């Protein structure tokens, strides 16, 4: 197969991974997705994330965005050194260009471990901000249950990835602390229908995700997500009912010496005239803050068979996406912090003035305010 020029996203059945008889088949399919595509659909995850929970969460999303603007602003991201909270439409940048989306960044429960003298990046994990309970009763509890369930799916999926790369199932555990010491970050996103022919159809611009893996719920039936193959073609990844989309990020690509593909993707705004916005909820499953993926201490030893497959496939060429090459030299927490600074300069100016100046020596860009 010419995996490099994939033209569709494979669909894997998670239940196959749960029985000894069918697991080898799943592991082979996962290996192909990891090495040649960088994206997959995952079905039959009911045992970890129940369909009722997903429906309940989806039902809250329109209510969340319909909250009065002053109530949304009350939990604005600029309040938070952890970059958690509400961002108004058009306040986020990807590669310096404005994204047309409105969102609440919400993470799994975690207290900030930062104390004076610690590196700044320890503060990139911390508590979330939720809208007042009486305005949207039950949302907070539902979101927290969802985040725990999807994080647990991610934690199990990491062991499957290890096996698909011919490592022992705990082969990637050095990149994690115990689950209670990890924070995984999510956001509830609304991509509004453009009201007139606007200059840009950028819901979110082309980018790689940063970490090991992202678990995405496409929470409305709209197309718009697209994935770039190595010929540069944009392949549609429309919502498939009762599946998650899973994709792999730059940290995993670096940590696996290029065996795994991080794949560039983007979201187009819904077409003018659509009757409702597009909704999605990605969860970025993090690795530990202190890991420097290229540190010899974290180097993984792969069997020759896997390295051979990588070499037969060939070296991956660059694309014009945000590239996160900082993983070469920086701890993961610092890469996360730098990414947040670039996407949310106004939040950075308030909480990380020195870093802000480094990336924006001419001051705040005209666009890019979280509030
Ligand atoms: O909204 C989506 O479907 C994908 C969003 C995305 O790629 C991201 O936020 O990193
Ligand atoms: Fe993404």
TrEMBL record:
Span of the signal peptide: none
GO molecular function, one term: metal ion binding
Keywords: Iron, Metal-binding, Oxidoreductase
SUPFAM superfamilies: Clavaminate synthase-like
Annotated ranges, domain Fe2OG dioxygenase: 178-287
Pfam family, one: DIOX_N
Similarity remark: Belongs to the iron/ascorbate-dependent oxidoreductase family.
Protein name as catalogued: Fe2OG dioxygenase domain-containing protein
